[in-house]
Amino acid sequence: MLRLLACVLGLLLLTGARVSAQTTPALNATLEGLDYPCPVQYLPLKLEGQAVRMAYMDVPGSSKGNGRTVVLLHGKNFFGAYWRETIKALSAKGFRVIVPDQVGFGKSDKPNIHYSFHQLARNTHRLLDTLGVRQAVVVGHSMGGMLATRFALLYPQQTAQLVLENPIGLEDYRVGVPFQSVDQAEAGELKSTEVSIRKYHATYYPHGYPAGHDQWLLPLAAQTRHPDFPQVARANALTFDMIYQQPVCYEFSRLTVPTLLIIGQDDRTVVGKGLIKDAAVLARMGQYPALGQRTTAQIKGAKLVPLKGLGHIPHLEAPAAFQAALLGFLQ
Q: Which of 33, 69, 196, 267 sits CB 3.0–4.6 Å from 288 for a disulfide?
């Protein structure tokens, strides 16, 4: 009960919170000092001979818990806290909600290792096993959608249902995006500033950047001002390469779990879009309305909820519409 009260208080205190560049101190590689909506715990792992910690929130359902668990998987340029409103909605309906920061992201360690969706899925599987969760609904946004797909392919018996919110990886970026080495990607990451990060995040909102998004952007910008930032930049480059080199779009037909796609129809996200110089190639990529329909057709029994007028992050841009689609599927 104390843990539930602590989470509820944290969710209420952070709701609508505003931060500014002037009041955001530099943050280290693991976002030390940044409050999350609920208490953060850590799972110890050993990867490639390195001891690392995987951060996560484990939020109980309301007093009338329904005995079901939902796992929320974040996107590449985010961390678990941005699921705050989704956590609140699910917890209120009795769901236990587990929200990991994948290794390489958020409050988790950022080792210099080979990153793979297989390994991240195994880490998530290990987390659920440690927490005694035999089966869960797996929800993935953006890069989290690629990871959720890989998880469902590797652990179908642990995946009760699969929800993909504007996932990246619905197409093979290697076909249209020029290759860059990890070192080249790292050099670009090291040049990141609040201005460049803000410019990129603005593309998630085709109809105008909402001021409220700053609370998810500024912590990332604050990391660029910390001596730890080279660790973050290296992890960002390695995980970009993971996305580029490890497509899941050829395996959707292998999924055997009930699946829902929630697709903001105005999204045009392409990983590595800035590397594309051919206008014709750029024009044909990132077409989420068509990609969503094609992917839904590839997954047996899958359902599609198209959300008109929304971009890449429906759960932030239109939380009520996103939650209605999600909860409707979970009934």
A: 267
Closest CA to 74 of 86, 90, 62: 86
Cβ-count burial 296-330 (b if 16+ within 10 Å, e if not): bebbeebebbbbeebbbbbbbbbbebbbebbeebb
Contact criterion met (CB below 8 Å) for 38 and 87:
yes
Percent helix, strand and coil across the chain, each to the nearest 5: 45, 15, 40
Tokens of 315: 């759960």
- Mapped onto helix, strand or coil, the DSSP state of residue 243 is helix
The answer on pLDDT for 71 being more than 60 is yes
Is 115:160 a contact under the CB 8 Å cutoff? no
Q: Say how many C-beta atoms besides its own lie within 10 A of residue 195's C-beta.
A: 9
Cβ-based neighbour number of residue 118 at 10 Å:
15
pLDDT beyond 70 at 10 = no
- With a cut of 50, say whether residue 216 has pLDDT above it: yes
Residues in the chain: 331
β-sheet bridge partners, residue 55: 42
Q: Burial of 133 by CB count in 10 Å (0-12 exposed, 13-18 middle, 19+ buried)?
A: middle
User: Phi, psi at residue 163, to the nearest 5°?
Assistant: -125, 125
Cα dihedral 8→15→96→68 (10° resolution): 130
When pLDDT is cut at 50, 70 and 90, the band that residue 65 belongs to is confident
User: In angstroms, rounded to a whole number, what is the distance separating the alpha carbons of residues 49 and 309?
Assistant: 47
State the pLDDT at residue 12. 43
Specify the 3-state DSSP secondary structure of 165: strand
CA 48-50-54 angle, to 5 degrees, is 100
pLDDT digits (tens, 9 = 90+) for 160-201: 999 999 999 999 999 999 999 999 999 999 999 999 999 999
pLDDT at 24: 72
Mean pLDDT score of the chain, rounded to an integer? Answer: 94
Name the burial class of residue 243, with classes exposed (0-12), middle (13-18) and buried (19+) by CB atoms within 10 angstroms of its CB. Answer: buried
